[in-house]
Model the fold of this input.
Amino acid sequence: MSELQALLFDVDGTLAETERDAHRVAFNETFTEFKLDWNWSVELYGELLAVTGGKERMQFYLDKYRPDYQQPKDLADFIIELHKDKTKRYNNMLCKNPLTLRPGVRRLLAEARSAGLRLGIVTTTTPENVISLLEHSLAPEAASWFEVIAAGGVVPAKKPAPDIYNYALQQMDLQPEQCIAIEDSQNGIRSAKAANIPTLITVSNYTRNEDFTGAMVVLDNLGEPDQPFTVLAGDTGSFTYADIDMLKFCLK
Ligand code: XBP
Ligand code: MG
Done:
């Protein structure tokens, strides 16, 4: 087994609970702005999350739920326009009302940095969304802590395809077994495992009932010294929160 060298973090659902009260709300505001009778309830959005990527998600919604919608001839361009508006709204939201990071995220990142571990971001969300979340919720300079921010459409196929993880490995010149991916969803673990990267799951509010077969360990969150995690699958020994020693223990 190679020595652990890098942590690769997913964003949505992993660093913060971004989906229900931020991405979903931004989509709905855009639909209202464009006078569309589309409204994504909390429940419906859970089903739409089966498809990663906001543009792809809108197309999926029309295909599956709105066969009645009179599509414009240039539907792909229209979706791009809607998505630009949604991205602007989402970024304004993160600036005005920064989201709280999930338990253990800030601590684990700080420990990883002082232990000399390398860091990467691997996500399907739009790059500017990542920068906003990092700047407003973590630290103004936090984007610079990550060697690579692999995001959005930089690769042809989004998660669950392995492309975005393979891209990050290539950019960082790392082998999969030198890394741990930290994910919250089945699409995320399918992507990381298809790239052969050991994966730790912290379930999020939309993903707790998903199938995480192949995960190194499944936790409710990363935990804190005074706020132990709950282990949902796997062996964490006597560790009660995720730190570097715990990650190394789980790799063995
Ligand atoms: C999250 C996604 C994203 C966001 C929306 O994936 O699928 O599409 O829901 O962002 P991950 P965009 O957990 O891998 O970050 O609208 O910018 O696509
Ligand atoms: Mg996620």
In short: Strands lie at 6-9, 118-122, 148-150, 179-183, 199-202, 217-219, 231-233. Residues 10, 12-14, 184-185, 188 surround magnesium ion (ligand 2) (CB under 6 Å). The chain has a mean pLDDT of 97. The two ends are 8 Å apart (CA to CA).
